[in-house]
Amino acid sequence: MASAVQRIGALRDRVRIERRADDDAGDGAGNYEGEWETLIETRRARIVPRKGGEQVIADRLTGVSSFDVWMRFDRISAQIRAGDRLVNCNDESRILRIRFAEAMDEPRRWLLLQCDEGVAT
Hints:
Thrombin, subunit H, mainly beta, 7% helix, 6-stranded antiparallel β-barrel
């Protein structure tokens, strides 16, 4: 993990995590009709654009931006999973789809969310 993330001061963004209200009522193809409900209220995080890689560059050509989002890991943030969405509280129009959520360090202090912007949520 990047050492810059390990400082509290690096968590400059405020985010909210949302989940579909009825996420078990899908049509079997991953389409859900429920409204988004707040799963986790405002948290501090660090949103970092992903760099390089063929897939990241190809996604940018189609209007999709990829981000790594770092936040503190605890029992509440452990509930986050792929399919949830992240709302940037600094700019509510920025909504990111969470593709991956995992504690990436051994003492489990930091949670990594890999997210996309510009895709259907």
